[in-house]
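Two quick folds needed for the group meeting slides. Do the first one here.
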Amino acid sequence: QRHKQDTSSPSSEMWRVAASLVVVLAGSSHGGLMSCSVRADAKDSATLERFLQNGIGVNAGPGECGERPILGQHIAMSVVPYVVADHISNPAPEKPLVLTFVGPTGVGKSFLADRLADSIFNPRINAGTTMQQQWTDGNWNPKALLGKPNTLFISAVDYRDRTTKQWHEYLDQKIRKQVHKCKRSLIVLDEVHFFPLDTLEYLIELTDFKQPIEDATYGTIDFSHAIFLFTSNTGATNISAVYNTLLGSGRDRTEIEYRDFTEVLEDELALSEPVLVSKNRVDYYIPFLPMGHTELSEAIEWTLERLKCTGVAQRKFDALEWDAGTVQWLSRTDGSHSYNLTEAGLSRVAQHVQAAIGVPIDRALRKSSARKPSADTSAPQSRVAVAVHSDGTKRPTVTVDIVKPTPGEDASKSSGDL
């Protein structure tokens, strides 16, 4: 009440924080169990596959412009939703589900892990990040995982400045606390190829608890309902080699199957991360394919659509169009750009499009004085249309067309009328 009456009061920030705490505490009642309960519809594999592919809207980002689809990883999508749905629908699983996502950098391993957390758990208050912080220039921010009460995200970065003993104590405390808080937790261990081998052995031993254990701090802990997800770049070179060989033999990308990589992954991991193989704890090694030109073009088209959606939502412009030559130039891998996007991965696409298209659009809008406030607030506002053009060989050019309303014209026309 006081905050509503006097927002200029020095204590208004205190009241705002207090109100936020009320919301957070309300969402974490009953020991926080409500925040990590499993979605009933996610127990259906077909529904979960749809959630994973297209998202469910909780991380839509600025302007609610939709979520990036999973691009080019049909093998992962043919396995993950089905084994996860089977595990979370099992009232008494024998052991935790252990998955390893293996493949090159930037092809969507961490992204799919985050999408998995959103898809299998009920909507919750994200205590760690705001909606805007989860997206940077239209690109998903992996740190968003840190604030999710149903998900524990541990990276090799956390190992810095710790001795091996301190590192193991840190892991033990974090994982036990997480599973105590929410027995159906998703525990993501990112970039395990940087973990010491004895750390991997310790983690694998955790996944072998088939019966509840008694912990001096947290009491009874049951690991069997949890999902452990390792991501690793190990085997990326061999995955790319097998992938290119299969393409060279006439196979289409979508015809390449999970079983095509089983032997090469087990051989590679047996050398570099032997504990993962020798202990037989990992249920599925999921290969992530390198990004091809088709997947790169699809990612660029999606990023341009998001640029358009957010620009309209923020009232920068009313319409944005681009031609095929623009996508062709953006997706070139012949050395025209300072890096090869098919090697840099999807994580660089948003930055690439923002630098090549987003920044020039903002510059052109400033030069054209588009959306400059009018002294007469009742006057219909000009409509702004932006066009991006390239012949595929040259850097795209941006033009801004400002359509001023004529007297008596209905200013409520849609952007399609442009």
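Then this one, please, same format:
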Amino acid sequence: HTVVVPSSQFHFHVSGSRLDSPLASPPTMSSAQQTVTCPKCRSVLGCPPGVPALTCAVCRNVVQVPSRAPIQPSAPPKPQSSYPPPPGTQSPYPPPPGAQQFPPPPGVSSAPAPHPVPGHAQQYAPSPEPPRFRVARRKAMLVGINYYGTSSELGGCINDVKCMQFLLKSKFGFRDQDILLLTEDNPNPVMHPTLRNIRTGMRWLVDGAGEGDSLFFHYSGHGGRKRDRSGDELDGFDETLIPLDHKRAGQLVDDEINETMIRPLPPGVRLHAVVDACHSGSVLDLPFMLKGHDMYGRANWMNEAAFARKFKGTAGGEAICFSACDDSQTSADTSALAKVTRTGAMTYCFIDAIESGNGQTYESMMQRMKYRLATAPVSSGGGGLGGGLGGGVLGMLLGGGGYTHQQGFSQIPQLSTAQPFDIKRPFVI
């Protein structure tokens, strides 16, 4: 069963180590035909299908033909999917004509993932944007303290919470029964902003919170600082809120506020806080503080709880706080903004940002508030300070640091959160 291949069929010969042909080009062979190389003269021989051996037409050597696996039929082409590829794997080729295109699911971008910038590491990346928040229930706690009849009396704090109450009802759908209002002008002593009532109100705010709940906390009054005894503050001070009865009951320290109102928040719950007080930057002890933007325009979140001995975040929920100023600053209680009455400067700018149409995102909120505070036409007689009652109860009151004597308040509003997020996302209460 030896097949002799005529020498006229292939005109190959060996020249050195290269295979040369005296013809212009070797004859073509069918893709189904097998070829073998003669081990003696290195000639390439064509082998018909099923032949076990053949004789070389050049050197007459018998060449054994190795068996080969049967040719597998090629798989049919994979149908092109009309669903979009995962993010970062977008095909550069257009879809076939007539293919139905589906948009990506909510919250997922179909754009390619950005390449990391060489030499730049983002330490705290924003958490993925949650799906559109559907509010199931709303609750708000508003605390305004003017400290009537004391040496530290303020003029705009009760005005602040009443304006905030109107904003929540007119813009965000809160009802009277959803809002707990603690002010000292209420004839019912149970509704006075004492230390006990504030603690009770904080527990009421988060009690029974479940998925879809939107919670809101607003405080307008004095804020202070106390020496940190636990070693978890970067600046060595705990921030405090000053209740109406602080001389007898004491101050409300940020560690307790965090434990009572932040840590219990379960997944699906969103808490917004607005704290218009001196030294209020980290008064909720939230782990992350917004510190401007990096060179690429991304939010720069600083971990404020790096040395905390206790967990400062939530149980899965969201907590976001707008504060009147940095921990080392004081905030203004003034008539320079409202003109006709005294208000807290930060509360006024927060409400102004929403009513002026600048409340679409957290970024636009912060930009508007900073702009209004920096450009307010104040003077030495334009308003007092909501000063800080420091570690010894009496502290900074009517003087220093709350605003300049020419134009603009020096206080800089702060944004803190339990977990980093994209500040360009919609602002929703």
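Slide caption for protein two: Helices lie at 157-171, 195-206, 246-249, 254-262, 345-355, 362-375.
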